[in-house]
Design brief:
80% helix, Molecular chaperone DnaJ, TPR-like_helical_dom_sf, Serine Threonine Protein Phosphatase 5, Tetratricopeptide repeat, mainly alpha, single chain, 0% strand, 102 residues
Length: 102
């Protein structure tokens, strides 16, 4: 059983558990299944307004899916959180990503 299958089973049992959804999304991304990860990352980001990581991963996944316009607000929101939470490395990375998006 793959990691994504393991976490999909947990999400099926507890669909409101954002940590299971986040872990499922990470497993899907590791398996190059970004399109399937998007809904789970969106769910996590919408559930917790101050959770930066789902926003970063969602933005990157959307960029990888050539959905740059959809990615930009998520990445901008993640940048705002990175600054507020003093996460310097993610802040630098997000500024670069956003610069590339134009």
């Amino acid at each position: 059983m793959s990691r994504s299958q393991q976490f999909a089973a947990l999400v099926a049992k507890q669909p409101d558990n954002e940590l299971f959804r986040f872990s499922l999304a990470q497993a899907l991304l590791a398996e190059n299944r970004a399109a399937e990860a998007v809904e789970h990352l969106e769910s996590c980001a919408r559930k917790k307004a101050d959770w930066m990581m789902p926003r970063i991963l969602l933005g990157k996944a959307l960029v990888g899916l050539n959905r740059r316009t959809a990615a930009k607000p998520w990445l901008e929101d993640a940048l705002k959180l990175a600054v507020e939470q003093n996460h310097e490395d993610p802040e630098r990375e997000l500024r670069e990503l956003l610069k590339d998006l134009g």
